[in-house]
Design brief:
Length: about 170
């Protein structure tokens, strides 16, 4: 499901059509209404936040085109990934555990093993910020040319207030 599907418009809709579609659907899905649904409303808000801005819409269109051009090895949900600490020292050529022990520090990242034995990884903070404007992100394996798609729920779904205010 793309942001265009969420808004019920075609990919060539102009800015005013995007705004009109958002207003109409926002009324239908608003959580205060009897038939409202907060998840649908959050997804709608995210789609609109992405498509209303020319720069982010252009980047989104490019990511859709690249998904079509190079098929993904798999599409998974974020909760199918594990959270692990990746050592920052790895960048400096110091291996994982040693770098953490050496006090170089690490960053928490979502990780999914690739069938080549290497892994797809994205720092937790980076993924959380993608959730504001993206319904999916594409990760590249660190060891081969495979890519996977990760479905992102809108920020606010299944999160507590501390994450929302971050
Ligand atoms: Zn791989």
């Amino acid at each position: 499901m793309t942001h265009y599907d969420t808004l019920g418009i075609t990919a060539d809709a102009d800015t005013s059509a995007v705004r009109e579609a958002y207003k109409r659907r926002a009324l239908e899905t608003h959580p205060d209404r009897a038939a409202g649904d907060s998840r649908a409303f959050l997804e709608l808000a995210r789609a609109y936040a992405c498509l209303r801005d020319a720069t982010s819409r252009k980047a989104y269109d490019a990511s859709l085109a690249s998904r079509r051009a190079r098929p993904l090895a798999d599409v998974i949900d974020v909760d199918e990934m594990t959270i692990e600490t990746i050592a920052l020292g790895a960048v400096a050529g110091v291996s994982g555990v040693d770098a953490v022990n050496a006090g170089l520090g690490g960053v928490d990242a979502y990780r999914r093993e690739c069938r080549c034995g290497d892994a797809y990884e994205i720092p937790v903070g980076e993924l959380q910020s993608l959730r504001r404007t993206h319904d999916e992100c594409v990760l590249e394996c660190g060891g081969c040319s495979l890519r996977i798609g990760v479905r992102l729920s809108p920020l606010g779904v299944g999160e507590d207030a501390t994450v929302l205010s971050a």
